[in-house]
Design brief:
The protein has 2 helices and 14 strands, in the order ββββββαβββββββαβ. It is mainly beta. A hairpin with a 6-residue loop joins strand 7 and strand 8. The protein is globular. 31% of the residues are buried.
Length: 196
């Protein structure tokens, strides 16, 4: 039976949860390139990063800071390093008022595996859109499905052309669920699309 994969998201509908803000440097300035944590490669980080709490609430084991940057509690970070040590970079961060250690979870693999024909809908940037640097990449992916034959052993990765998606293997999903990880939401991206 082929391995299943899931898009890992922040469960934004949890009641009473915290909301994290824009990553800051040690002097309190917004990071120049927060996108570096969402492109599927190692980020050259040489300073401590601080994450402000935008809206106070219940801390979560997994949540997104601004720009959908995944932030994980230390115990969740250890699950990722145990299951997928070659697929992630964990960058220590300080979260205002939180003594527990947290990390930016940076997926360091980029995999060209979106199955256009199986997705509900895909759209590409074209020259007419006036953004030449994006031509040929996805402008929209709805009902994402991936071709697992192209994953080549990755357990955590970003999808080429649509790096907004953070994909995890079924065994990592199961480990996160078994550990009672708060804040996670999974969407299956393998097999035929499910209506509903």
């Amino acid at each position: 039976m082929p391995t299943r994969f899931f898009k890992l998201n922040d469960d934004v509908y949890l009641s009473g949860r915290w909301e994290l803000g824009h990553p800051l440097d040690q002097e309190g300035r917004k990071l120049d390139d927060p996108w570096q944590f969402r492109i599927g490669q190692r980020a050259p980080v040489d300073e401590r990063i601080r994450i402000p709490i935008k809206i106070a609430g219940r801390p979560l084991d997994f949540s997104h800071a601004a720009f959908s940057i995944p932030i994980v509690h230390a115990r969740v970070a250890s699950l990722f390093t145990e299951v997928a040590p070659n697929d992630v970079q964990l960058i220590p961060v300080e979260i205002d008022g939180q003594p527990a250690q947290h990390f930016i979870l940076n997926a360091t693999r980029l995999v060209k595996c979106i199955d256009d024909a199986a997705c509900e809908e895909v759209r590409y940037w074209t020259p007419e859109d006036g953004m030449p640097e994006k031509v040929g990449t996805y402008s929209s992916v709805s009902g994402m499905r991936i071709d697992t034959a192209k994953v080549e052993g990755a357990k955590v990765f970003r999808t080429w052309g649509w790096t907004v998606a953070l994909i995890v293997s079924e065994n990592l999903k199961d480990a996160l669920a078994h550990a009672g990880t708060t804040g996670v939401k999974f969407t299956d991206v393998t097999g035929p699309a499910v209506d509903g």
